[in-house]
Write a structure and sequence with these properties.
mainly beta; SH3 type barrels; 6-stranded mixed sheet; 1 helix; globular
Length: 89
Amino acid sequence: MTLPLRAFDADCPGSADGIQAVDSCAADMRHAPEDFAVGDKIRILSGPFAEFVTRIDRIDPERRLTVLLDLLGGPTKVVLPAEGVIRQD
């Protein structure tokens, strides 16, 4: 089963001026597929799997990353937009 996710499902944290926090959060979410390679360790930023850490299984030409998440005791393919993840060191 493959579950698609949208990049901006979760709200960015707020701040006193609001705009700076949104700009900062949006900048964190801008990554081109060229920034990633199969096997890279990434952290999901938004959606129901936010904060999950996994490795990239596949990258398609439409800026989507396929990862495997351990859900309900087994691996499940999840397709994510490149903008919704960051590289985890």
